[in-house]
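Example S7 (structure tokens).
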């Protein structure tokens, strides 16, 4: 895909990976609508893009709310053009351990249903034009797992599965999909789980940080932009992840035994 002149929506764009993706898209000539519940942060991202010579607008939006998604798409169409690229980036860690019913509804809404609701709105138009690109920011947790937080791990597995389904179902209609699966990334979410008093949440942070190096959000954005340009589905900003994923698939029982040992080691520290 030639990115220059395209219109994009980035959810969760006030900070972290979303902000880095908004900056990277704008640097390639994409006109960006930044959505986030943090209204001031979303506008700060858009202002920074404009001050750097790019084109950007911002809107307070809940990425999991259909009306708010419609608002983002409407703003893009009125200020720029109908959306060519949708970056479903907004995500939450959710509750540690098993959580309760409300915890599961919350994490599944943001990490999975937000993607489904956006796709429902976008796909018909993209099919009619024969083009469009959906970027699902998932996690290595969707390919492996995350110690300590069932909701996060399961919702990211589901996000990867949904992205796969989109790519298979609509690829022949000219619609591209990339699924972004980083390990540790230096973001506010990472800092929050590092500092929490909950032992299960801290276990998750430790497992992420020790599995591979913690990289910057800009590193994730650069790998993602390259994938969109080339039409690559799976984006693994950490090169170590591919070998981990192959190891899991080669012998599932051995991998689960290894994860149990790893968990015991972390808990003993």
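Recovered sequence:
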């Amino acid at each position: 895909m030639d990115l220059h002149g395209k219109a994009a929506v980035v959810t969760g764009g006030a900070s972290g990976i979303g902000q880095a993706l908004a900056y990277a898209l704008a640097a390639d000539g994409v006109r960006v609508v930044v959505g986030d519940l943090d209204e001031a942060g979303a506008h700060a991202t858009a202002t920074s893009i404009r001050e750097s010579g790019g084109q950007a607008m911002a809107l307070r939006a809940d990425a999991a709310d259909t009306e708010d998604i419609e608002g983002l798409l409407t703003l893009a169409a009125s200020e720029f053009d109908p959306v060519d690229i949708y970056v479903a980036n907004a995500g939450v860690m959710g509750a540690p351990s098993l959580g309760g019913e409300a915890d599961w509804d919350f994490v599944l809404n943001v990490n999975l249903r937000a993607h489904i609701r956006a796709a429902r709105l976008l796909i018909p138009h993209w099919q009619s034009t024969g083009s469009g690109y959906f970027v699902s920011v998932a996690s290595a947790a969707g390919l492996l797992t995350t110690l300590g937080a069932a909701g996060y791990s399961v919702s990211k597995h589901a996000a990867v599965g949904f992205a796969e389904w989109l790519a298979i179902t609509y690829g022949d209609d000219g619609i591209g999909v990339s699924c972004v699966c980083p390990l540790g990334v230096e973001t506010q979410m990472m800092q929050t789980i590092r500092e929490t008093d909950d032992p299960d949440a801290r276990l998750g942070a430790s497992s992420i940080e020790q599995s591979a190096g913690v990289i910057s959000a800009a590193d994730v954005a650069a790998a993602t932009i390259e994938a969109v340009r080339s039409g690559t589905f799976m984006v693994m900003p950490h090169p170590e992840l591919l070998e981990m994923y192959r190891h899991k698939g080669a012998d599932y029982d051995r991998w689960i035994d290894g994860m149990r040992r790893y968990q015991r080691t972390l808990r003993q520290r």
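Notes on this example. The chain is about 55% helix and 15% strand.
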